[in-house]
């Protein structure tokens, strides 16, 4: 029996807000006593996690004095050191306080936009002080319920202006920080701007410093809209823009459930893990998930262990898939290629290549008759995942 004990080298991380969630939801108050950030770090370190992620106010309360901030940060740094943990990612809370009820970077009010920039600069300083190499932007309130309230073209420009400003700030400070944009199709706003990973990738190309900006796709966010997260991550990987990733569980068409990783859709999660492993993604694997409201304090840590264990099980299954002779034989046949056409199809246009293609007599009926044993292949995957192969 394989050991599914996480190692620091697995780079598993948790947000302070995940294991620290007291079970609040829109219909109920807290069911668990809050655990301090230092306690969360120490416990996660004992479980084999690599690091933690945080919003600014997960650690430093909103409105804290400079003295309070420095004391809290010093204690937290010591906890990281004692636990052999890192701060793998930082971000800013631009959605909880009422000042951001109608957005931060996209607000119609210039004072609110300026305050948001100030808050983010302070959060970037905090993240760098803690050693975070990645800074994530999730536009939690960047959207609208009333289309008459905002010009979405102006909103896009404001968002771009903010990221350009903050990119220049990071460069001026010589921080070496990278940004990762996180998309979500809806919730908590009726409609959120830049709702998908694909939209974020298109937006990045319009920035002044696209080289320092990538994406942080989240399983629940794409899945809740009925999209295929596996494909979104593949697009980000192919573009060289997968800077960070959020792993959790989600049923399509629901609110943002943030279930334990692997709790829903085993096949989708299997192919996701296989994608990350096959393409040697080396960034943090962040479990942006919440324990169930029904969990008691001890069950919270079972939730954390379960996220990591599930990833390692899927990683083992991916290795089995890659070594399965029958599966690989089918894939080899499907991807046999053509020694004459492959050089043309993989190269840039030339008049000679175009003429070569024009001169070939293709037989569409013969091509259509070639077998595609996808039913068999899919069943083999099913058998492998359920342990009967």
Could you characterize what this model shows?
This protein is an alpha/beta fold. It folds into two domains: 316 residues, Divalent-metal-dependent TIM barrel enzymes (TIM Barrel), CATH 3.20.20.150; 61 residues, no CATH class. The protein has 16 helices and ten strands. The strands form two sheets. The chain has an eight-stranded parallel β-sheet with strand order 8-6-4-3-2-1-10-9. The protein has a two-stranded antiparallel sheet with strand order 5-7. Helix 9 packs parallel to helix 10 and helix 10 crosses helix 11. The longest helix has 27 residues. The radius of gyration is 23 Å and the shape is globular. The mean pLDDT is 97.
Summed up:
It is built from 16 helices and 10 strands. By secondary structure, the protein is α/β, with parallel strands linked by helices. It folds into 2 domains: 8-323, TIM Barrel (Alpha-Beta Barrel), CATH 3.20.20; 325-385, no CATH class.
Using the coordinates above, name the CATH class of the largest domain: Alpha Beta
CATH H-level homologous superfamily name of the largest domain: Divalent-metal-dependent TIM barrel enzymes
Q: Give the helix proportion (percent range).
A: 40-55%
Order the strands across the largest sheet as they lie in space: 8-6-4-3-2-1-10-9
Radius of gyration, taken over Cα atoms and rounded to an integer in Å = 23 Å
Largest sheet: 8 strands, parallel
**CATH fold descriptor of the largest domain:** TIM Barrel
Uncertain stretches: none
What's the domain count? 2
Count of individual helical segments: 16
Q: Please indicate the percent range of residues in DSSP E strands (runs of 2 or more).
A: 5-15%
Reading the helices and strands in chain order gives EHHEHHEHEEHEEHEHHEHEHHHHHH
- Give a count of the beta strands, DSSP E runs of length 2 or more: 10
What structural class should be given to the helix and strand makeup?
Answer: alpha/beta
Mean pLDDT: 97
CATH architecture heading of the largest domain: Alpha-Beta Barrel
Shape designation = globular
Terminal-residue CA separation: 15 Å
């Amino acid at each position: 029996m394989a050991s599914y004990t996480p190692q620091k080298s697995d780079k598993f991380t948790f947000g302070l807000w995940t294991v620290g969630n007291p079970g609040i939801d829109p219909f109920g108050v807290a069911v668990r006593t809050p655990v301090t950030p230092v306690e969360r770090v120490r416990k996660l370190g004992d479980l084999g996690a690599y690091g933690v992620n945080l919003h600014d106010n997960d650690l430093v309360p909103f409105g804290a004095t400079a003295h309070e901030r420095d004391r809290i940060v010093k204690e937290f740094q010591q906890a990281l050191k004692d636990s052999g943990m890192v701060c793998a990612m930082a971000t800013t809370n631009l959605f909880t306080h009422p000042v951001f009820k109608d957005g931060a970077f996209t607000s119609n009010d210039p004072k609110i936009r300026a305050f948001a920039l100030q808050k983010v600069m302070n959060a970037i300083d905090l993240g760098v002080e803690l050693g975070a190499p990645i800074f994530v932007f999730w536009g939690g309130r960047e959207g609208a319920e009333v289309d008459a309230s905002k010009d979405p073209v102006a909103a896009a420009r404001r968002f771009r202006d903010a990221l350009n400003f903050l990119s220049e700030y990071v460069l001026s400070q010589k921080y070496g920080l990278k940004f990762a944009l996180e998309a979500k199709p809806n919730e908590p706003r009726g409609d959120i701007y830049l709702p998908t990973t694909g939209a974020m990738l298109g937006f990045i190309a319009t920035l002044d410093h696209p080289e320092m900006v990538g994406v942080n796709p989240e399983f629940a966010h794409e899945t809740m809209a009925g999209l295929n997260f596996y494909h979104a991550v593949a697009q980000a990987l192919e573009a060289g823009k997968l800077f960070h990733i959020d792993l959790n569980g989600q049923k399509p068409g629901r609110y943002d459930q943030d279930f334990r990783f692997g709790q829903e859709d085993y096949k989708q999660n299997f192919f996701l893990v296989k994608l990350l492993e096959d393409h040697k993604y080396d960034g943090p694997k962040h479990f942006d998930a919440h324990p169930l409201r029904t969990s008691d304090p001890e069950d919270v840590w079972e939730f954390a262990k379960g996220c990591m264990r599930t990833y390692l099980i899927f990683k083992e299954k991916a290795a089995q898939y890659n070594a399965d002779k029958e599966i690989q034989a089918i894939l080899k046949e499907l991807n046999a290629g053509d020694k004459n056409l492959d050089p043309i199809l993989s190269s840039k246009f030339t008049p000679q290549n175009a003429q070569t293609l024009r001169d070939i007599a293709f037989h569409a009926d013969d091509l259509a008759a070639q077998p595609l044993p996808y039913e068999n292949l899919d069943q083999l995957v099913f058998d492998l995942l359920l342990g009967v192969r």
